[in-house]
Amino acid sequence: MRAKIAAGNWKMNGLSAALAEVGALAAAHPAPGCTVLICPPATLLAQMNWQVGQAKAPFHIGGQDCHPAASGAHTGDLSAAMLKDAGASHVILGHSERRADHGESDALVRAKAGAAHAAGLIAVICVGETESQRDDGTTLAVIAAQLAGSVPDGATPANSVIAYEPVWAIGTGRTPTLAEIAEVHADIRARLADRFGAAAAGFSLLYGGSVKPSNAAEIFAVAHVDGALVGGASLKAADFGAIIAALDAA
Ligand code: PGA
User: Fold this and answer.
1) Rounded CA separation 211/43 (Å)
2) SS3 label, residue 196
3) d(Cα 250, Cα 247) in Å, to the nearest integer?
4) Would you place residue 137 in the very low, low, confident or very high pLDDT band (cuts 50, 70, 90)?
5) Domain boundaries along the sequence of the chain
6) Which of 87, 101, 163, 193 has its CA 20 to 30 A from that of 64?
7) With a threshold of 0.90, does the pTM exceed it?
8) Closest residue (by CA) to atom 2 of ligand 1?
9) Is 131 a catalytic site residue?
């Protein structure tokens, strides 16, 4: 059985006051049937970890990026061990916003994932095509190349999750058709099988890009969709809670 995961990516949103949303989520969903992961800005990790512990909520906390090195002279960066020390169990890597804003290559994402694994973090490795790549018909080739380049050889279902996030669907309110999601997720599973054999069946595959309460259930019904990576709709407890409930019911 693959882990079902509802992951929230707060991106560069949230001051201390936003932690009230986590309290509300814990009150409304004290015992979710899926893995609930919240990835706040790094400044809130330790506070959120404390708060989740106080609430006895079974929520996991994650970072949004880490440096490939274990420590050193890298002003402004955070190591995987630092995230772990602050209470993180997961880290999002290779998000399209980091690939675009910071020029992150597949090789860098792969190095970061290796660092995450070495520190005992689960890497949530993101892949996804741009709108022009989809229009060109190269979606599956782009994603195959990203998987080959970004997923390290040491990846296992226990230490890695793959998130498919079409760049054009992130924050836009637009989503692929269910058939398009199904095609890409089945192809990701097949590419993982080429590389990791039978273990491929154990990797959780998340869809991300404009997931919201109104479309979560139909997306979760698609084969090989084991959960979601949610941006905007993860910021409010009511919306994220509805997505968690949809995944519980899937
Ligand atoms: P969105 O973001 O849900 O706001 O589209 C998803 C993501 O970037 O992970």
Assistant:
1) 25
2) helix
3) 5
4) very high
5) 5-249
6) 193
7) yes
8) 231
9) no
